[in-house]
Amino acid sequence: MTEDRLDATFASLADPTRRAILARLAQGEATVNELAEPFAMSLPAISRHLKVLERAGLISRGREAQWRPCRLEAGPLKDIAGWVEHYRRFWDASFDRMADYLKELQTPKGDPDDRKN
Amino acid sequence: MTEDRLDATFASLADPTRRAILARLAQGEATVNELAEPFAMSLPAISRHLKVLERAGLISRGREAQWRPCRLEAGPLKDIAGWVEHYRRFWDASFDRMADYLKELQTPKGDPDDRKN
DNA sequence: GTTGTACTTAACGGATATGTTAATTAACAA
DNA sequence: TTGTTAATTAACATATCCGTTAAGTACAAC
To answer: Which residues form a coiled coil (chains A, B) (predicted)?
Structure first.
């Protein structure tokens, strides 16, 4: 997994319309018009959002007659989950003490007697 | 957790410089100059990246004399982890069959006899 | 063929993002 | 006061994002 792919995935997910589209696709394939229906936004705008998602690898598109059914592709989401997992210890309560400890260990200018406990 | 906060968090994480800064901060507090050191980029550019991270709640900043030590704040990362977790079933192997099943269930134009198995 | 439906692309506009250099603020040190 | 270091802010250039409307493409139905 490259950094560029993380860039594209995070950037795609930064838009609420695109996240809503993914949520919709989590329930099954849908056409562009079906995906556009809930939004107060022109069809071309949705089409561009879909292109962004496709470029990020978050969806794939088939062809059935004049329809382009969209489908969720979760690979990049797995990458995101893997990335964020590295930070779990910073929000898990059981690791708070360790985080504090690590921080104290290498505070460059801190007074050593400032240490809690 | 609001949608806006997810927007800001994902947008912040879409930049590789900012992700690298977070990775650095995972090892402990650091000043702006320390954070800037690995990058071929001007200090004002780093300062702006830090402002983006701060606005997203991903870091906090203290004051020690003329230094502004930066510290990782993991709350928004926890939100990200929670968000992406909803999609786990789409990449977990044990759920592939279920995803297929759901897809078949509501394919609008599919031939019912197309169903696998 | 013509018409209708589904969707994309083109052209445009405004807002935001990301970098630069130069100037400024703030705190310490001589 | 003067100078040094740390960091931010100002001013600017460029690029990308996100929406619009209008035009174009692809397929289906008649």
So the answer is: none
Mean pLDDT of B54-64: 94
Backbone angles phi, psi at A40, to 5 degrees: -85, 70
Check B84 against A81: CB less than 8 A apart.
Answer: yes
* Nucleotide D22 C1' to residue A39 CA (A): 21
pLDDT number for residue B66: 81
Q: Which CATH class is domain B3-76?
A: mainly alpha
Average pLDDT of adjacent 10-residue blocks, chain A of 117 residues: 90 98 96 96 97 97 89 95 94 63 49 33
Record: contact B26-A86, CB cut-off 8 A: yes
Q: Measured between alpha carbons, how far is residue A71 from residues A40, A80, A105, B29, B112 in Å? A: 22, 19, 48, 42, 19
At the topology level of CATH, where does A3-74 sit? Answer: Arc Repressor Mutant, subunit A (1.10.10)
